[in-house]
Amino acid sequence: MTAVAVPTRDMSTRPELHVDLEAIAANTRLFTARTAGEVMAVVKADGFGHGAADVARTALANGATRLGITSLTEGFALREAGLDAAVLSWLNPVDADWAAARRARIDVAVPSREHLLAIAAAGPGSRVHLHLDTGMARDGAASHEWSELCAIAAGLQSRGEIRVVGVMGHLGCAGTPKHPDTDTGRIRFGWALDVALAAGLDPADQHLAATAATLTDPRTHYTMSRIGAGLVGIDPSRTSTLRPALTLTAPIVTVREVRPGTPVGYDHTWVADRHTTLALLPIGYADGLPRRTSGRAEVQIAGRRCPLVGRISMDMAVIDVGDLSVRAGDIATVFGSGDTGEPTVRDWADWAETIEHEIVTGLGSRLHRTTRGSHR
Ligand SMILES: *Cc1c(COP(=O)(O)O)cnc(C)c1O
Questions:
Q1: Among candidates 244, 251, 227, which has minimal Cα distance to 59?
Q2: Is the pTM above the cut of 0.90?
Q3: Ligand 1: does its nearest atom lie under 6 Å from the Cβ of 43?
């Protein structure tokens, strides 16, 4: 991708999303220290909203050895960005461009017989990871299909049509430490490996754990962990201290004083009960602030937490700054690391009754992004 020159503008005139690469580097090192296996950096959904190429480069420079994504399209974008590390893509339709994947040296996961045959039909040399559903009934082959899938794969491999380099599964409840499903999934995965070996396959890459299981259950590590959320500071198990990597700020556009009884925003869901000062921020649900957090969310201005009042609009939010003396151009922190008392992505997720992943992947594309720190 080529960088587009933009006119230099006062940084305080627009919302800014800062991506802290040093946090991503530190998080990556924490994972490489926690497992003897390889770390695959999962950079799907634009690196969980942090920029796929930036997260990929940073993770690879700090001990990750591979990249993982869902669609081939995302893999091609990584290649175009100049990344040449090993890549695995695990979610594609049967008629995906498997030949292009092979040319781009992208390994592909196989969730079904139909996928396997289509990959082999696209020409020899594809590297595949057989994918078992270890307990989510979501992606991956069902247990009753596994023996046949391994047998077909072994036949294709013996004729030189494909190479089975991996077996993968995924755990659905690892965010809850000691959840019984993690044991069930691990036992199923062990069985799947045995079946693959008995079919004559010899998959070097054996991977089951993502962020949560890597942090809470070493028995799930096998030869590799696929880490996405953890790289960007999200720990679904809430057992570790990872560093959040995003800070979102917005400048105050206008300030107004209002009298008691003044209704604010669409539907007048909030009415001032005293004299107060309202500040307008140029950021709304189109930028990824969930509208359902209206009435709960806060931002930080001049070191103080101030509530959003009334409904969040598409492009705007109104803050009750109380007796704070603020001016247009002053900067509000919507979320950040939390180190100085500002709200965090986790706060926003709690206010929206969702998970942090949904907040960071839902940020709007019009937000101006900058990175802090180097990929090293
Ligand atoms: C998203 C995803 C991952 C990464 O999970 P995190 O919990 O974000 O680390 C790993 N494996 C699969 C199959 C995924 O879809």
A1: 227
A2: yes
A3: no
Q: CA–CA separation, 208 vs 225, rounded Å?
A: 7
Pocket test for ligand 1, best of 214, 221, 226 (most atoms within 8 A of CB): 226
Phi/psi for 210 (5° steps) reads: -110, -155
Q: Which structure tokens are listed for 48? A: 């969980």
Lowest mean pLDDT among 10-19, 286-295, 320-329: 10-19
Q: Which atom of ligand 1 is nearest to the CA of 70?
A: 15
Residue nearest (by alpha carbon) to ligand 1 atom 12: 170
Hey, which of 31, 42, 360 would you mutate to test ligand 1's pocket, going by the most ligand atoms within 8 Å of its Cβ? 42
Q: What is the pLDDT of residues 297-347, one digit of tens each?
A: 999 999 999 999 999 999 999 999 999 999 999 999 999 999 999 999 999
Catalytic positions? 44, 266
Residue type, 198: A
- Asked if 275 and 257 touch (Cβ cutoff 8 Å), the reply is yes
